[in-house]
Amino acid sequence: MQTQYERLTDSQWENIKEYLPIQRKRKYDLRQVVDSIFWILRIGSQWRNLPECFPPWRSVYYYFQCWKNDGTLQRLNEALNQKERIRQGKEPTPSMISIDSQSIKVAPFIHQDKGIDGNKRINGRKRHIITDTLGLVWGVVVHAANLHDGAKANQVVEPLIGYLHRLKKILADAAYEKIFRDWVYENLLDVELELSSKPPSTKGFVPIKWRWVTEQTFGRFNFLRRLDKDHEKSVQSSEAWVLWHNCQTIIHRLPL
Predict the structure, then answer these.
(1) Who contacts 212 (Cβ-Cβ below 8 Å, separation ≥6)?
(2) Is the pTM of this model over 0.90?
(3) Rounded to a whole number, what is the largest CA-CA distance in the chain?
(4) CB 141 within 8 A of CB 236
(5) Tell me, what DSSP letter sits at residue 230?
(6) In 3D, which of 31, 21, 20, 76 has the Cα closest to residue 54?
(7) Which of 74, 170, 205, 251 has the fewest CB atoms inside 10 Å of its own CB, making it the most exposed?
(8) What is the pLDDT of residues 64-112, one digit of tens each?
(9) Which CATH class is domain 92-231?
């Protein structure tokens, strides 16, 4: 785990730039733009407090919004996921994924898509993510914490239909048993939903085979100030920061 922010190395930029629109000359170097986004992810600063060593914050924010909305960020995330899986000796796309949610508090003055998770006593939002067995994030949806996991799970999986063509099994806990099981049966042919939970007699965190990597991914969020709670007015920006975190994790794993 990286303990402090470090600028992109040449090799890290090489792994990123082929998936960004670098074909034409621009006023600001896109490498500096990506560096700025990673800095905010690590430090948790407001956009307006971006240091002068980076491009103007309005320009960086412009690219953050554009890449979020036009699919560039999603394509970058998927490409890096495939590259890391191949490096680990696996097929480019997973045959088994794990889905889970994390309830988090929101920053002050945020009122959109907010609710109370009665089980965890948190007034805020839920991050719903899909990971493979390496803990790489393939999908994310952020929504109000009072919405049930099973009712929103299909929104996380649905964008991946047809793309994860090797998918055979989805791992989940008991919260996904009713609504989501029916949706999987009706929409995902030959895909099994496997439900597993810790024994009722145990207390505290109990690692469950393969599903523990999703919990580990949630744990990594705590090392980045932008993700320690939800600071975003829109859930779409919250989702984007989760994908940027996944991209940053991968480029630090890839060999120099």
Answers:
(1) none
(2) yes
(3) 62
(4) no
(5) B
(6) 31
(7) 205
(8) 999 999 999 999 999 999 999 999 999 999 999 999 999 999 998 898 9
(9) alpha beta
